[in-house]
Description:
Blueprint: E1 35-38, E2 41-43, H1 44-51, H2 55-64, E3 74-76, H3 77-86, E4 90-93, H4 124-128, E5 131-132, E6 136-141, H5 147-157, E7 173-178, E8 181-186, H6 191-199, E9 207-213, H7 220-232, E10 236-241, H8 250-259, E11 273-275, H9 284-297, E12 301-302, E13 309-318, E14 322-331, E15 334-335, E16 339-342, E17 345-353, E18 362-363, E19 368-374, E20 383-387, H10 390-403, H11 416-424, E21 430-437, H12 443-451, E22 459-467, H13 472-481, E23 484-488, H14 494-503, E24 507-510, H15 513-525, E25 532-546, E26 551-562, E27 566-571, E28 574-586, E29 589-590, E30 593-595, E31 599-604, E32 615-623
Helix pairs in contact: 6-7, 6-13, 13-14
Amino acid sequence: MAKTVSRPAPAKVAPAPAPAPVAPVATVAPPQDHVLELPPEITVRELGGRMGVSPIDLLKALMKGGVMVNINKSIDFDTAALVAEEWGFDVRPEGWASIPAPEPEPETPTNGATAKKQRPFETAADRAQSVPRPPVVTIMGHVDHGKTSLLDVIRQTNVAAGEAGGITQHIGAYQVVKQGRKITFIDTPGHAAFTAMRARGAQVTDIAVLVVAADDGVKPQTTEALEHARAAGVPVVVAMNKIDKPNAAPDRVRQELADLGLMADEWGGDTFVIPVSARLRQGIDDLLDAILLVAESEDISANPNRPAAGTIVESNLDSKRGITATFLVQTGTLRMGDTVVAGTTFGRVKAMVDEHGKRVKEAGPSTPVSVLGLSEVPKAGQTFEVVPDERTARARTEAAILGGKATAAPTATWTLEAMLEKIKAGETKELNMVLKLDVEGSVEPVVNSLKELSTGDTRIKFIRVGIGPISENDVSLAAASGAIVIGFQVDADNTARSVAEQSGVSVRRYDVIYKLTEDMEKALKGLLEPVYEDVVHGEAEVRAVFSRGKIAGCYILSGKVTRGSRVRVLRSGTLMHDGRIANLKRLTEDAREVNQGYECGISVENFTDFSEGDRMQFYRRERVF
């Protein structure tokens, strides 16, 4: 018996004006007498165009009838007829010979995801036992576009049934229920927190909600947030907030989003752009419906029948409760009494509390809980894992401490050499790059020149292309995406260089385009020679000269000098000699090194012309690329 599909209730937000004709789906005005001819198969998008109905409304109707498809999926004539009849159409078969049925369009999403992200902690056995789990959602977007307000409204109006008391404590994540299905929200708005987790090895988010103000449109942080979502390979749903403002311009915002590659579903694209108003609490149900529809097409699942593993969202030291940490379980089931390891700390789960302050005994995939029982405060973004016993936990943490890194979340090193090794091993075919340039006019020639280097096997993939100095955010994005950072006629600030050194990200600067393309071509072919940089580790002043200029009596001004290190001799700023230290003495004894604030005697290979007042720079050569 055919399934009955009921027509969904009309959207709560007043309909926007007719969109501008930017690559829309070809629509057919409803025929007279509501007669609609349909082929044997038709995509949901094409059906919406012929009916003059938004594809999202069709998807809601299909979902209520138990048919789970996406916009580009083909449905048969009977299913399409049932849906169309709910809108009052008289449906008839279309002549197959005269008008061939449209071919199904590719199902690969283009709504922001560049690739399906790999499921964390998953093994082949887990995939065989996987079942659907709630999607985990992160809110991102430009400052002041209403990210926090939107999260607050969702939390207040969609708490789980039976939790009349509402939210009693903040744990950094919470769940809402829509149509009997749960959605988990990470309560850390902003792409900085999103990327910080990814940079630590935690891939948490399944779907990103990009908040854009209807009266303000796409801003630089909007673009940055989209870049972070694309780098993570997660699909994007757009929440067009502040639709109630008098100066709201939804069509302009849709056009700006289309320019970024996010074509709205109303215009024939694959991106849900949902008008909402956090202030008036309008459109929230439509937004949650869109999230669930995207989740259906993403195959979001996990194996609940295994030891739990996941990510720590927040952690703190409470004066009354002691050490607490919010665990987001990503696979398996976490239970009371389980022994967990999180980097260099471990403990036994003594208590678990949900976002309503209610104690729970177990937590399945995509469930956030506040956990008591760890021995130390772990870092946010650190992954955790259940182990068989305390003995195993101690061994794991001791190994992590001795190794200088957390076993469950190793720090990646994104050097060009490491990437080339992956390319040679066949692990990847892409050289990821964050490219920063001095002026807008340089973007097209530089990007096009680098694109031409791509071969059938390898290519350069641009994670971000921007204008201005290399920033800390650029380096963080590179660390999270496995990319190198290239500056063309721009350099990195001190903070960015410090972060790059800590995270192991390669940063390199070029002034000439042919040198950049030459090096990248060699890199893709595995022929690039290493590049070294001089790092000064000490300075000294010559205060006396002995043996007719052969030996310098020096005072160490900063750092230190070591025997055999390289040295530059400067006189009034002019380089007199560049060589190595031949002898180093402290008083009358040979010395291995002399530190700042002490005097010493120095002789330099092949230099016998010291003069009082000369400066010495001691340096070493370090490989940077």
